[in-house]
Design goal:
Structural class: mainly beta
Strand content: 35-45%
Low-confidence stretches: none
Oligomer: single chain
Length: about 475
């Protein structure tokens, strides 16, 4: 009898617990939408949520621009809900969502991310990324690298940080040196997506794409030039008085005591490395094992980093205004005088036509036979390297010694100016003649380092798929043909 009573009591308790069980709000499982978009272009949102009691659910979105969706029709739990929105103004917007079940039990607002909406006008500023420390804003000297697959930009600042920035301008992570050391040269990404950079004082580091330190080496040299990537992912660096070869695990392969400068090395298809020396007025080449292939000296300093105009021909400039073309065996093919020195690297349109910009802002179209055609001159004191887009736009930076602001130019191949965008200039007190160069992302956005941060500017088309389309050849800054 007592057992029967106990069973009845337990049954009643269980029934009361069942009927009094508190209804829980739905739980967000995933939310997918692009990190960037453009004004007046539809943005797609996809969301999925689960109701603990298995009830049907409804979604409500806040798009961050003072617009909200209404509650959606109820759908089955764990079904995919889709919505769209068109932004009317540029900017960065926080996206939030509420979810409720069919009985009206709803969540609080849940932040699901941020979207950066670009203006449609070419040349307008999309967003600005800054690095602040103790009330000071870092200058960015290096030219960024762009991982198009993972939609991340990597760039260094003067505080000794390497920043990973998403395409919407939000920092993903940053790596900080234990001791603050300025980074002037540009980072490099190898074929395995490992990142390499060197500080001005000679710390050489490798990171994973997640920002974890792989290794660090002290080279005890001053570095302003950017590294190059070898055929088998070797890393080559040029300091003020030495050159270094490392494998990608950080092992020193060889080093040579050769005077350098601001010139960055390049690598051909066979893995041979070419170095230019401003201090020694020379160009020289080593094979991957460190054996000297050739050396040629001039009566004027080599003032830019060499670049390939095709697989067999290399171009570089001298301080006395000459342009020299050599083949990969070191034979001089031709020499021309453009009346202004070339301090930056050019870009290739195809295997026979290329474009150069002089230190003072004159752009020339050249061909493999040494014929040059003037395109435009903007009359400045210093320029960056060029980058060419798939729409045949040339972008470059021009600087004036007495001006606070530089200008990012966009021109077509006939020399017509498409846009001029002011950007913060570099510190006039610096004694090197290096300007960070623009890079173009897969959606056409132009990224350029400035004295006040990394600027994202609306462009026209992604980078042109040629053999040498930007500073250091490509968006990974490999310097490798």
């Amino acid at each position: 009898m007592k057992k029967s009573i106990m069973r009845v009591v337990l049954t009643i308790i269980l029934l009361i617990g069942f009927f009094c069980k508190k209804n829980q709000p739905p739980e967000l499982i995933e939310a997918n939408f692009p990190s960037t978009g453009k004004v007046n272009v539809v943005v797609d949102f996809k969301l999925k949520a689960k109701d603990p009691e298995g009830k049907e659910i409804s979604f409500k979105l806040d798009f961050g621009d003072n617009n909200q969706s209404g509650w959606s029709p109820y759908i089955l739990t764990e079904s995919v809900y889709t919505d769209t929105h068109t932004y009317q103004n540029p900017g960065q917007f926080d996206i939030n969502v509420k979810i409720k079940d069919i009985e009206g039990k709803e969540t609080e607002w849940i932040k699901i991310g941020k979207i950066a909406i670009a203006p449609l006008e070419i040349g307008e500023i999309f967003w600005i990324f800054t690095c602040e420390n103790n009330g000071e804003t870092a200058a960015f000297y290096s030219t960024p690298i762009i991982d198009e697959q993972d939609s991340v930009i990597y760039v260094a600042c003067e505080f000794g940080h390497l920043h990973a920035i998403k395409f919407n301008g939000i920092e993903k992570w940053h790596f900080s040196l234990l001791e603050e050391e300025r980074v002037v040269s540009s980072p490099l990404m190898d074929d395995y997506k490992y990142i390499y950079f060197v500080t001005e004082e000679g710390k050489f580091l490798s990171l994973t794409k997640e920002g974890n330190l792989r290794w660090e080496r002290d080279l005890y040299n001053s570095f302003y030039a950017s590294p190059a990537l070898g055929k088998f992912n070797e890393i080559y660096l040029q300091s003020e008085d030495s050159i270094f070869a490392f494998n990608n695990t950080g092992e020193l392969l060889w080093t040579k005591g050769v005077a350098g400068g601001n010139n960055s090395p390049i690598v051909d298809e066979e893995g041979n490395i070419y170095f230019a020396s401003e201090k020694d007025s020379s160009i020289f080449s080593f094979d991957a094992n460190g054996w000297l292939r050739f050396e040629f000296r001039f009566n004027s300093p080599v003032v830019n980093s060499p670049f390939f105009i095709n697989s067999k021909k290399i171009l570089f400039g001298l301080e006395d205004n000459r342009i020299i073309c050599i083949d990969i065996l070191g034979e001089t093919l031709w020499s021309r005088n453009l009346n202004e020195p070339i301090f930056s690297s050019g870009v290739v349109l195809d295997d026979s036509v290329f474009y150069l910009i002089t230190k003072y802002g004159s752009i020339f179209q050249g061909d493999v036979n040494g014929n040059f055609l003037p395109i435009i001159s903007v009359s400045c004191d210093l320029t960056s390297s060029l980058v060419i887009s798939e729409n045949n736009c040339l972008y470059f930076r021009a600087s004036w010694e007495d001006e606070e602001y530089d200008t990012l130019y966009g021109i077509d191949l006939n020399g017509n100016v498409i846009f001029r965008t002011p950007i913060p200039g570099e510190d006039e007190s610096e004694d090197w003649e290096i300007l960070s160069s623009p890079k173009v992302g897969p959606d056409g956005t132009i990224y350029i380092s400035t004295a006040k941060g990394l600027y994202a500017i609306v462009g026209k088309g992604k980078s042109k798929n040629t053999s040498w389309y930007s500073f250091r050849k490509d968006n990974r800054n490999t310097g490798r043909r």
